[in-house]
Structures are given as structure tokens and as C-alpha cells.
Amino acid sequence: MDEQFLSPLEVAEILQVKKNTVYEMIKRGDLKATKMGKQFRIARKDVYEYMGVMPETESPENIVICGQDQLLDVLCALYNSQSDGHTQVYRSPMGSYSGLYRMYQNENYVATCHMWDGATDTYNLPYIERMLPGEQVAVFHLLKRWQGFYVKEGNPKNIQKFEDLLREDVRMINREKGSGIRIFIDEMCKKLDIDPDRIHGYEDIASSHLIAATNVLRGTAAVAIGNEKSARQMEGIQFLPLKQESYDIVFRKKDLKRKEFQKLLNIIGSGEFQKEAEMMSGYDISDMGKQLY
């Protein structure tokens, strides 16, 4: 696999810390970095080595969980601390759509997703049924979290509703295709019969919540859409809630007959895992572990 390099801001998004913290980690020598011109770049493999996980693995005995939420690192760490040495769990940092696609193509993969279907006003199940055709699956709830507008503190453009994105004085920054936020934006456009070409900045892409928030803070965009948790990490950003999303995990039904996957599910339902989740602000874990499908 070709080496991939990340900016300090992208690393901050993965680690769920502030960008300045990443620079401090580089300065202390805790995180390897390479100077490319005037900018630091960090190899993705070094980020995952620091975290104690790897983004992908070739071993047929290991399990890969697809998803971007930091809580999945906790899940992997708890599993691996109890491992018998034969099976390890790793996280692959890909978005909802790509995760389901990868799960369909590969054994021993588990997907997490937060994709809103505007026609039914539900999360995930319509996409799971379409993207995993013929697969018998079991879907379990992990958590709920708010998504909404990122604006500068004080909301100088007075953005209140989705239709405000059509205003001439408002420029947004979008997210990449396949991400849960991009799917929400496109579904809202469809539901409200909005032509995306009328939205200033629709073609401008940020690859993470924190990068989107940074663009708003710098003034290159007036608004972005992302989750509440990331907004709290960026001083000067105000969060305006739009919709509470459901973040769920998908297993193949046949895999749950195997002790390795049953152990993973047991950890999700454990008090230890839920206690770790409670310590992370911005989550509603009241139905964590509930089977949805």
C-alpha cells in the first residue's frame, strides 16, 4: 500500500485533539513527522502506531472495524487487551459508505455508519439493505450525536435554517462524497428541492470536521455542517444543532456465531465500554448495544 501522509490538522481529527496538541506531540518526539517544505507531514502508519492500532490488516484471523469515531479505538483497545493472541481488532478510518462497501467485498470486516435517508427520515437501515444485498446482517446501536451548523462565534451571518445556504452572502464548505455529513447535505437538498449548484461553495471540500471548522474560523467559508463533538474542540466556533444522528454498527449474522465476533459484541454491551463512552462529551449512549435489525 502506498504511503499516505497527513497534515497536523488531519491527525488532530483522527486523535480527536486540538491541532496545537499535535504540534506539541511532534516537538516532544511522541509522534514522528517529516518537514515537507514549510509544513509538517505525518505518515498515516505512524499515527496508528502511536494509537496502538493499524488501519488495515491482511491476516484472515483478524477483525477490521470501518469507521472514523474515536470511540472505535477504545473498542479495539478493550478487545485487544483481552485477546488470546490469535485474533486482534483494528480500525480502518473510512467513512460510512466506503465502510459498507468494504464490508460487502471482504470477510472479517465490520462497518459503522451514520447515513440519513430523507425519504423515510431514518438512519442507516435503508442503506444497509441496499449496499449489502443478499447478506443476512445484524445491526446494533452505538450512540446518538448531534450534527449541525458550524459558524463563527456570535453567528454573524445569522444562519438559522438549511435554506439559508442559498443566500448570496453565505458560502459553505462541503464534505467528501460517502461521508455521513455529505449524505445528509445531499438528502436535505433533495428533500427541499434545492439545486446544489445554487449553493455557493458546494464544490469546496473539507476532508474532516476539524478542517471544515477551520475554514469557517478563517473566513474562507461562512458555514459548514459537522458533528457537535468536533465543534467543541475548536475555540471560536459556535454549533447550531440541526438533527440528532444515529451511529450504528453492522455485523454479518453468520459472524455472530463465532466467538471472536460475539466477544466484540459483548464488549459493546459491557459497563466498562459504556463508562469510557460516557467520559467522551457529545454522545447519547442510552440505547448502546440495542439490536435494531
Report on this model:
The protein has helices spanning 8-15, 19-28, 44-51, 71-81, 96-105, 125-131, 180-191, 209-218, 228-231, 259-268, 271-278, and strands at residues 5-6, 34-36, 39-43, 63-66, 89-92, 109-113, 116-117, 122-123, 137-152, 172-175, 205-206, 223-227, 237-252. It is α/β, with parallel strands linked by helices. Among the domains are: 1-51; 146-244, D-Maltodextrin-Binding Protein, domain 2 (3-Layer(aba) Sandwich), CATH 3.40.190.10. The strands form 3 sheets. It has an 8-stranded mixed beta sheet, sandwiched between helices. Strands 1-3-2 form a 3-stranded antiparallel beta sheet. It has a two-stranded antiparallel ribbon with strand order 7-8. Helix 7 (180-191) links the parallel strand 10 and strand 11. It is globular and about 55 Å long. The mean pLDDT is 90.
Low-confidence parts, pLDDT < 50 over ≥5 residues?
A: none
Largest sheet: 8 strands, mixed
CATH fold title of the domain at 146-244: D-Maltodextrin-Binding Protein, domain 2
Find the structural class using helix and strand composition. alpha/beta
**Coarse morphology:** globular
Q: Measured on Cα atoms, how large is the radius of gyration?
A: 19 Å
Number of strands: 13
CATH class placement of the domain at 146-244: Alpha Beta
Order of helices and strands: EHHEEHEHEHEEEHEEHEHEHEHH
CATH architecture of the domain at 146-244, by name, is: 3-Layer(aba) Sandwich
CATH superfamily of the domain at 146-244: Periplasmic binding protein-like II
Number of helices: 11
Spatial strand sequence of the major β-sheet: 5-4-6-13-9-12-10-11
Q: Mean pLDDT, nearest integer?
A: 90
Terminal CA distance reads: 35 Å
Proportion of residues in extended strands: 15-25%
Helix fraction bin: 25-40%
GO molecular function: DNA binding
Domain PBP: 85-268
Organism: Eubacterium ramulus ATCC 29099
InterPro entries: HTH_17 (IPR041657), PBP_domain (IPR024370), SinI_DNA-bd (IPR010093)
